[in-house]
């Protein structure tokens, strides 16, 4: 997800995020318990894995 500084600033001004970051924010918003694992290759986000845990009270 190598984005030039100028591009990053213009995306923030528009309120838009790169798809990879949007995926991370979406996962954070819906996840109550679990883990989010990011896979990075050569400085770029290439994969987002979400593991959800379900907790039950006894």
What does this structure look like?
The protein is 38% helix and 29% strand. By secondary structure, it is α+β, with helices and mostly antiparallel strands. The protein has one domain. It is elongated.
Annotation keywords:
single chain; 58 residues; alpha+beta; two-stranded antiparallel sheet; 2 helices
Helix content: 25-40%
Shape: elongated
Largest sheet: 2 strands, antiparallel
β-sheet strand percentage:
25-35%
Average the pLDDT over all residues and give the rounded result.
85
Q: Specify the structural class.
A: alpha+beta
| C-alpha-based Rg, rounded | 15 Å
Uncertain segments are none
Write down how many β-strands occur, each being a DSSP E stretch of 2 or more residues.
2
Element-level helix/strand string: HHEE
N-to-C CA distance? 43 Å
Strand order of the largest sheet: 1-2
Number of helices: 2
What is the domain total for the residues? 1
